[in-house]
């Protein structure tokens, strides 16, 4: 097991009030390290199983059942399950008077075909855990195990809420997994004004980070994304009139090239947007230039060049 180091890109401050934050004593730290070694094979086993059996956002029913079964085996109290298909909220209760911390893991896969040589490998054609959400879920289950043991030994001050969130990859949609989980936590009195949760942490693996480094930063850490849909209309015409009738696909190509030119330097500085062409539709006749065409760009607010799946970016259906 690597020694973990924490690297901060920018100043990090705990959202928990300083006077209620406590340093871990050396014996507890050693205990946690020993527990980590103990639960590592169990976490790896869950990761393998989840990687081989991926489910897309909104369809994580079996994944949710597996998580629920594992939590029950550990004796962790499940507060809600089956949220938006497979979402779960569980809690490890520690000593009274401490803060309530929430930890969140996402659980959905992507519509991508995994390479044949990978191991473990998805058993489902066209669906694979390519964003690491299987690692997140396995890690949160490992954390649940350790917190449960700490609580049993009366070494845990306060409660830990475990949030297994579905549909992260559909964050650009209104009914995203995050909004469903937040709505449920609001209903339950865990979030919102007077809510029980004092601090909420989410984490994401990042291939650019060296092994053994934990990167923390105050404020926004990961990227957000959204879609821009553009619909173009013209008069259309016969393909032989290519130089008289605007070719909408040519215009989409031009837009894509220009966006790439504009955003690449900003992306490289980690400070602005990238926009990638996703779809372009238009035209049906063999020799007809379309009178109407639609295209979609995915726009990512690139913080630390990482992920497209972390929160909602409201730039939908822009028109030009
Ligand atoms: Zn992700």
Automatic annotation (TrEMBL):
| Transmembrane feature ranges | none
Highest taxon above the source species: Bacteria
- Matching InterPro entries: Amidohydrolase, Peptidase_M20
Q: Which GO terms describe its molecular function?
A: hydrolase activity
Q: Which Pfam families match?
A: Peptidase_M20 (PF01546)
Q: Does the keyword Protein transport apply?
A: no
Sorted alphabetically, which PANTHER family does this protein's record hold? METALLOPEPTIDASE, PUTATIVE (AFU_ORTHOLOGUE AFUA_6G09600)-RELATED (PTHR11014:SF63), PEPTIDASE M20 FAMILY MEMBER (PTHR11014)
The identity of this protein, by name, is: N-acyl-L-amino acid amidohydrolase
Which species?
Candidatus Magasanikbacteria bacterium GW2011_GWC2_45_8
């Amino acid at each position: 097991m690597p020694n973990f180091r924490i690297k901060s890109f920018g100043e990090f401050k705990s959202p928990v009030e300083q006077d209620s934050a406590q340093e871990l004593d050396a014996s507890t730290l050693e205990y946690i390290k020993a527990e980590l070694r103990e639960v590592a094979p169990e976490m790896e086993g869950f990761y393998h199983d989840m990687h081989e059996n991926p489910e897309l956002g909104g369809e994580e029913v079996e994944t949710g059942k597996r998580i629920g079964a594992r939590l029950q085996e550990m004796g962790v109290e499940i507060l809600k399950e089956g949220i938006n298909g497979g979402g779960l909220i569980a809690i490890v209760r520690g000593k009274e008077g401490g803060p309530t911390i929430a930890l969140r893991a996402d659980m959905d896969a992507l519509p991508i075909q995994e390479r044949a040589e990978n191991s473990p490998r998805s058993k489902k054609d066209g669906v694979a855990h390519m964003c690491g959400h299987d690692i997140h879920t396995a890690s949160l289950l490992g954390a649940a195990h350790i917190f449960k043991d700490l609580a049993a030994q009366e070494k845990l001050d306060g409660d830990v809420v475990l949030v297994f969130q579905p549909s992260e990859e559909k964050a650009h949609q209104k009914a995203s997994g995050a909004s469903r989980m937040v709505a449920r936590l609001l209903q339950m009195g865990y979030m919102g004004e007077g809510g029980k949760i004092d601090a909420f942490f989410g984490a994401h693996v990042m291939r650019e980070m060296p092994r053994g480094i934990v990167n923390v930063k105050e404020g926004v850490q990961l990227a957000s994304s959204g879609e821009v849909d553009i619909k173009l209309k013209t008069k259309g015409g016969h393909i032989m009139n290519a130089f008289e009738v605007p070719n909408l696909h040519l215009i989409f190509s031009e837009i894509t090239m220009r966006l790439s030119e504009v955003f690449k330097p900003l992306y490289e500085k980690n400070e602005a947007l990238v926009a990638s062409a996703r779809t372009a539709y238009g035209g049906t006749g063999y020799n007809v230039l379309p009178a109407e065409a639609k295209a979609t760009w995915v726009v990512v607010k690139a913080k630390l060049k990482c992920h497209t799946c972390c929160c909602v970016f409201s730039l939908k259906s822009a028109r030009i």
